[in-house]
Amino acid sequence: MVRQPGMAAHNRPPLTRDRIIEAALHIVDGQGLGRLTMRRLGDALQVEAMAIYHHMPRGKEELLDGLVSHVAVLPARPGGDWRQALREWAAAYRARLMAHSGVLPLVVTRRNPAALTDTAASVREILYRAGLPEGAAADGAHALLGYVIGQAALEMRGPSPGEPPVDWDARFTAGLELILTGLSAQARRP
């Protein structure tokens, strides 16, 4: 196990679930998802890898679910104009996904419904308050969440060979405005 010189065990912060997830996120952000191992994580935390299991009994599966929850949960905040509140949420959510792009494949592929529930519920609530019927608000929240995650995934992949450079910001904004325009047509109140 790798220890920093002069760093005694009693000087380290206590091992917590949040500290474990933050250290794992640091590894994934810096080295990629493929480099995340329990041993490497233990080294980064300056503990034996087995100590992590005390906080995450399901091991790496629980760790990966924790990473998804940490990155994918970003509730929308209601504001004066619902469209602007959703624009701000979508931009912040896209930025969060791009900042932690190594976790993005997990967001797309892991079956962790709890990770997106709060986020989708907050978007749905804004749409419902804007006057969309309950079903349309749920569908709209799903469409917005899928759009932002999908756009981030396309952006990560980059343009196809031979495709001209893409202005991802302009493309994101244009697509978001199309969705918001469609949702506005469903709203009963401005």
From TrEMBL:
Swiss-Prot/TrEMBL GO biological process terms: negative regulation of DNA-templated transcription
Superkingdom of the source species: Bacteria
Pfam annotation, one family: TetR_N
Positions of the HTH tetR-type domain: 20-65
Keyword Repeat found: no
Domain Tetracycline repressor TetR C-terminal intervals: 74-155
Record keyword DNA-binding present: yes
Keywords, alphabetical: DNA-binding, Transcription, Transcription regulation
InterPro entries reported in the protein's UniProt record: Homeodomain-like_sf (IPR009057), HTH-type_TetR-like_transc_reg (IPR050109), HTH_TetR (IPR001647), Repressor_TetR_C (IPR004111), Tet_transcr_reg_TetR-rel_C_sf (IPR036271)
Molecular-function GO term, any one: transcription cis-regulatory region binding
Coiled-coil regions listed: none
PANTHER family membership: HTH-TYPE TRANSCRIPTIONAL REGULATOR RUTR, TRANSCRIPTIONAL REGULATORY PROTEIN
Protein name, UniProt field: Regulatory protein TetR
